[in-house]
C-alpha cells in the first residue's frame, strides 16, 4: 500500500517536470555502507575514462562522502542523510538545478531515493530490477538482475550507459597529508573480528587463537580494529592476545584507512574493511561461510585470499541467525597458515 501511493504520487508529479536535454551531466546514486560504496569505484572510473568531458556527480551516504572525498573521477559529491523525508524538498531543489540528463542507480537503502530521482528531469534512470523496494517502475531503463558480483552489477549499469569496462579493481585515494609513516617493529597485522550482521562473525575465540599463534610464531604486532559499537569485542580480544593493541574507535573512516595502509596484513570477517584493504592494495584474508564471496567477496584483488565454506542451513537464516555454526567449518589453523604464507613469501 505504501508503494502504491509513492508510485502514484511521484509518477503524477514527474509529468510536470520538464526533461533536461542531453547535457552530458550524470548523477550516480550510491547511498549505502563502506563495502557497497567501494564497489562502485571501478564503474565510476570507467565512466570518467569513457566520457572525460562529462560532468559526474555522486549522491551518496555520509560514509560514501568519506570514501570518495579525493576521488579524481568525480566532479561533485552530494550527501544524503537519514531520514530523507524532512530533507526531500531542499535536496530536490539542489539536484534539479544541476540538470542531470542521466541517473545511474547503483544502490540506495532509502525507499524515497528512486522516487526523488524520478523528479529530477533526467531522460534516463538506469538501475537493476528487483532491488528497489518494489519501485522498479520508476526506472526508465531497468536492467535484469543476474546472479553476479556486486561490482559486476554496477559495471553492467555503466556499460548500459555506454562506458567501456577497462578496470574492475577497487580504488581509494588517500591525500598526501593523510599518509602516515611506516610502522616499525613489524610485521603489523590488523584483525577485524566484528561485522554489522552477527551471522557474518567468525567466533572471537578463533580470532584470539590466530592472534596468539601469529604473535608467538612471527613476533609480530597486532592491531584489533572495529567500530565504536564493537568496543567490548575489541577490548576482550586485545586483552586475550599478549601485547595486542586495541584500535581507537573514535578515529574517522579516513583515519582508519590511513592506519590500514600501514598494515602488512588484514584478517577479517565479511565486512567493509576487506574491500577497503583491497582498494588500498593491501594483503587481506577474508573469512566467508554464510555469504557467497563470488557475489560480495574480493574481486580482481591479487593480494586477497578468501577462506570460505558453503552455508550449512538451507535457506540461510541471514539476520535471524544468532549462532552461525557454518563459520565453525573454518578453523584457526587454516587462517594461521594462510597468514604465514602471505607474510613469509
Fraction of residues in β-strands: 15-25%
Percent range of helical residues? 25-40%
**Ranges with pLDDT <50 over ≥5 residues?**
none
Tally of DSSP β-strands: 12
Instruction: Return the structural class.
Output: alpha/beta
What is Rg? 21 Å
Strands of the widest sheet, in order across it, are 3-2-1-4-5-6
CATH superfamily of the largest domain: Glycogen Phosphorylase B
Q: Biggest sheet, in brief?
A: 6 strands, parallel
CATH class of the largest domain: Alpha Beta
Q: What's the shape?
A: globular
Mean of residue pLDDT? Answer: 93
CATH arch. level architecture of the largest domain: 3-Layer(aba) Sandwich
- Give the SSE order as H and E letters: HEHHEHEHEHEEHEHEHEHEHEHEH
Euclidean distance between termini CA atoms: 59 Å
> What name does CATH use for the topology of the largest domain?
Rossmann fold
Count of spatially separate domains: 2
Total number of helical segments?
13
Outline of the structure:
The chain is an alpha/beta fold.
What structural keywords apply?
345 residues; alpha/beta; Rossmann fold; 2 domains; six-stranded parallel β-sheet; 13 helices
Characterization of this structure:
- With about 350 residues, this protein is of the alpha/beta class.
- It folds into two domains: about 150 residues, Rossmann fold (3-Layer(aba) Sandwich); about 160 residues, Rossmann fold (3-Layer(aba) Sandwich), CATH 3.40.50.2000.
- Helix content is about 35%, strand content about 15%.
- The strands form two sheets. Strands 3-2-1-4-5-6 form a six-stranded parallel beta sheet. Strands 9-8-7-10-11-12 form a six-stranded parallel beta sheet, sandwiched between helices.
- Strand 8, helix 9 and strand 9 form a beta-alpha-beta unit.
- Helix 8 packs across helix 9 and helix 8 runs parallel beside helix 13.
- The termini are far apart.
- About 40% of the residues are buried.
- The mean pLDDT is about 95.
